[in-house]
Amino acid sequence: MKTKVAVLIATWFGCGYSPVAPGTAGALAALLIAWPLADLTGWHPLWLAVVSLAAMPVSVWASTITARKMARKDPGVVVVDEVLGQWMALSGAAVLSARAWVLAFLLFRLFDIWKPWPIRRLEALPEGWGIVADDIAAGIYAALALTLVLWAGECFNLY
Fold it and tell me: N or C: which end of the chain has fewer CB within 10 A?
């Protein structure tokens, strides 16, 4: 039962089984959950960073169990890390506008795939820590870039 729950969480309720781009499917699922959550609660986007960090221990546990079960260091079906990273990326918006949603998604995917220093090094952490930490870091980079892009757009009247 423990393994089934871990796999369910790690695959983000099946999103990781997407036949095309499971990481992107996980990031999109994160948006589909964050959108109504933020809208209904009126939360400031920074709360998504808090939720992401609070969910990290469970995500590391689920990722570890799933990776062990599949005998792979970072199985492609594990997408809970993309969910947390995407929520972290959204926290860089001052306000969750349509522009912020799209930019946060694109920036997170960019940093998650590119993995600039030191993100790639975080993959070397043991088990679930290595699976999750690099996406949290990619989300932080994306949040910082999102803040900068949105600020520059407002300052220079680009929108």
Answer: N
pTM of the model: 0.95
Q: Average pLDDT for residues 79-107, to the nearest whole number?
A: 96
Tokens for 132, please give them.
């999750």
Helices (H), the chain: 2-10, 22-41, 46-70, 80-90, 98-114, 119-122, 127-155
CB distance 133 to 124 below 8 Å: no
- Whole-number Å distance between alpha carbons of 19 and 138: 23
Residue 58: HSE in the Cβ half-sphere, 13 Å Cα cutoff = 16
Whole-number Å distance between alpha carbons of 89 and 86: 5
| Identity of the amino acid at 44 | H
> Taking the C-alpha atoms of 39, 48, 95 and 144 in order, what is their torsion angle to the nearest 10 degrees?
-160
